[in-house]
Amino acid sequence: MTPEGADVMTDAAQGQKGSATSSRPKWSPWFDGKLAVAASIFGPYDLLVFPMLFYWGGGGAFLLIYLLFVALMAVPLLFLEVGIGQFMDRGAMAVWNIAPLFKGIGYVTTAVSAHVFWIALWMLTVQGLFWVDLGQSYVPSPDLCGTSEGYGTNDSYPPCQYAAVGLYSDRWPDHSLESGTVEGSKVLAMLLMLLLVCGVSAAGVRVVGKVTAVCLIVPCFLTLLMMVRVVTLPGAAQGLLYAFFPDWSQLAPGRTWVLGCSAAIYNFGTTRGILITVGSYNRFNNNFLLDCLAAVGLKIVMSICMSVTVLGAFGVAALFSNRDISELVLGNSASTLALLTDILLVVPPSGGFWAACVLISAFLLSLNEALWIVESVTAAVRDLLPSTPRFRVLRRKPVLLSVFAVPWFICGLSFCTVGAMQSIGQLSSFCGSYGLMALLSLLQCVAVGWMYGGMRFQANWAAMQGCCCCPYPLIFWAVVTPLLLFVMLIAWFFTLSTYNHDLIQLAAFIITLLVVVISAVIIFCKQPGSVRQKWRAVSSPQGLADHQLRPRDRRYNNVAMGNVGAV
User: Within a 13 Å sphere around the CA of 300, how many CA atoms are in the beta-carbon half?
Assistant: First the structure.
């Protein structure tokens, strides 16, 4: 056996010991962990936003761009976040002890996740009120009744039934310039949803894992049912052809490439700390590579199936309402949900069943996202609290949840007005800024691939898997992914305009950069000693346990401490 192989086996044995003595709760070896990785990258975005991007991005051409960036950016970042979470056994902030100079990454990701929770809570509130509206009968407007040739005399699919495609929920009008008083029904719905999320989260991470597994399996099953039903309706093929047919002219504008890159990063949930948190609950020797690959395959397949379902339904609606599909495809997730519900509500037979399938899928996906955000934020903060009697009460999860729930509820009241769409749009632009996500992704690659060292983490990866592995960290995290992120970040700058949406995204980028730089300067200046000693302190990992060290690192530490006999 080579010395490197002996090092790997020694690290693996130490990893088993370290995993056994860890006080952090762990997933079960076969079920919870694998489903948790898959569930953590699913959300309402897949059902309500990604199909719209599919349409506006050029159909099949956008799909090629999206898959390219998934392979070269999203998947490497997925491996990185789950891998360092499993290796460091810490949440989104404490995990960056692996490269202390970049601790600002953890501060930004946790703050962004806390703000994204407001969007997730708003989506849950919207869907809760949609359930109230589901039993209401929609009265077709004579002006919206279609007279499509070939279907005017079809008793099975009367065009007038599809007049509902012109109706949206009256509870959430898209009046971005209007304001209004807080409505009691919306406040009550938001409070109930907040209590539901916090109640499940307070039950423990294993309960969260089982609930999110249900939130993954049920929407996937219902999506397959809806897809089979929708593609058999008249007009669905036209909608799918119109949406999926490649528009190669869309490959020329730089904004399409930026849109595809942004969709790949955002759709896989990177840069929000969720994947790091999920990885931190893995056992040290868990094969996270297979977990991630299975999750990626399921994600791609189900995203396409959801796009087929949504765009096929819009094609049916366009045919029977005598409208162009471009008049129906929207960018707002709540309006898309309302429209999709209206369409399927009149699909014969049992339209109410298909509308309920949409609402159940959207609700469970939103609940899944909200649970993982809460778990990520609370785990990150809990890791930073000292394990002393003074903080014993605060470290309890129910207490910590109550600390966050109060500001989440108070600030969420602004989303319970008629003008909530303006606030939601601005918050979505800030948290979903491509500049913010690309910068955080680039810094993560630099921190792990360069400062900590791609070759070093390659050895750690081999120790976690119990065998030597391919030089993936060295190739992607150190070279390919950061280079592409930098190029696309430059391209993003050239696509910016003076619109409010782009200015908010630029502000998110600048704020993120300032937080990371200022925190790095503060961390560097707080270190004692000379400049060289300061640099060595901030560029070396902190708080690593013995099973997280390579044999050469153990020998170096023993020599540095004068413990020659231990070498």
Answer: 16
CA distance 143 to 148: 14
Residue bearing tokens 């339904």? 313
- Per DSSP, the residues of 367-378 read HHHHHHHHHHHH
d(CA 488, CA 183): 43
**Rounded CA separation 351/230 (Å):** 11
Peptide bond into 349 cis (omega under 30): yes
Q: Residue 207 is which amino acid?
A: V
Tokens 């942004």 found at:
262
- Answer whether residue 527 shows pLDDT above 60: yes
- Is the separation of the CB atoms in 473 and 453 below 8 Å? no
Q: Which is nearest to 181 in space by CA: 428, 411, 420?
A: 420
Handedness of CA 214, 219, 220, 225 (dihedral sign): positive
Are 282 and 26 in contact, with CB atoms under 8 Å apart?
yes
Distance CA(193)–CA(412), nearest Å, equals 12
Of 513, 150, 103, which is closest to residue 320 (Cα–Cα)?
150
3-state secondary structure string across 120-159: HHHHHHHHHHHHHHHCCCCCCCHHHCCCCCCCCCCCCCCH
Contacts of 453 (CB under 8 A, 6+ apart): none
Q: Binning pLDDT at 50, 70 and 90, where does residue 365 land?
A: very high
Residue 216 and residue 42 in contact, taking contact as beta carbons nearer than 8 Å: yes
The token duo for 442 is 């680039």
Amino acid at 333: S
Instruction: Give the integer Cα–Cα distance in Å for 245 and 241.
Output: 5
Token pair, residue 295, equals 């999750």
* CATH code for the structural domain at 3-166+184-566: 1.20.1740.10
Count the alpha carbons within 13 Å of 93 in the hemisphere toward its beta carbon. 19
What is the per-residue pLDDT across 69-126, written as a single tens digit (0 to 9) for each? 999 999 999 999 999 999 999 999 999 999 999 999 999 999 999 999 988 898 888 7
Note whether 274 and 353 are within 8 A (CB): no
Domain boundaries, the chain: 3-166+184-566
Contact 545, 470 (CB under 8 A): no
Q: Residue 146: what pLDDT?
A: 42
Distance of CA 298 to the CA centre of its chain: 15
Query: Residue 20 gets which letter from DSSP?
Result: H
Instruction: Give the mean pLDDT of 289-299.
Output: 92
